[in-house]
């Protein structure tokens, strides 16, 4: 079991599964949402993800008509995104994990939207406008 939390600790979650795939997303929305060069996201099975504390602090922002970004209303930590037309999957923001994992990033996506000040210096697969 993996556990994680937001910056203020008001929200805590657990995941009864493993992190197998890590995508580094360079899209403009993720850059804004994280305030960083890219987001490190992992697809999780919704049924195995549980908010164990802080339900009342969860806040949604719809960055498109079908995709919500869920964050802590108190400290602003981005926690995950989820599509209304794909409720079985959520994409965890990996920086919120508290459990140490051995998985490493799988690939880069939305490289076409990458911040011009960031250089990708690894040999992972790089995809453009796909997700
Ligand atoms: Zn918080
Ligand atoms: Zn993105």
Quickly list its features:
single chain; 131 residues; mainly beta; Metal Binding Protein, Guanine Nucleotide Exchange Factor, Chain A; three-stranded antiparallel beta sheet; 5% helix; binds zinc ion
Number of helices: 1
Largest sheet: 7 strands, mixed
| Nearest-integer average pLDDT | 96
CATH architecture of the domain at 2-22 and 40-106: Beta Complex
Stated plainly, the CATH topology of the domain at 2-22 and 40-106 is called Metal Binding Protein, Guanine Nucleotide Exchange Factor, Chain A
Residues in β-strands, percent: 35-45%
How many strands appear in the DSSP assignment? 10
Oligomer: single chain
**Structural classification:** mainly beta
Q: Can you tell me the CATH class of the domain at 2-22 and 40-106?
A: Mainly Beta
Shape: globular
Strand order of the largest sheet: 6-7-8-9-4-3-10
| Small molecules in complex | zinc ion
Please give the share of residues in helix.
Answer: under 10%
């Amino acid at each position: 079991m993996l556990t994680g939390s937001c910056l203020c600790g008001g929200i805590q979650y657990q995941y009864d599964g493993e992190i197998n795939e890590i995508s580094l997303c360079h899209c403009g929305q993720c850059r804004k949402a994280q305030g960083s060069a890219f987001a490190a996201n992992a697809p999780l099975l919704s049924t195995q993800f549980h908010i164990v504390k802080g339900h009342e602090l969860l806040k949604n922002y719809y960055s498109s008509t079908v995709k919500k970004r869920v964050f802590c209303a108190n400290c602003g930590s981005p926690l995950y995104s989820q599509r209304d037309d794909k409720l079985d999957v959520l994409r965890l923001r990996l920086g919120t994990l508290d459990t140490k994992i051995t998985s490493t990033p799988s690939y880069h996506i939305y490289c076409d939207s990458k911040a011009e000040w960031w250089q990708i210096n690894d040999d992972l697969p790089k995809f453009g406008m796909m997700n």
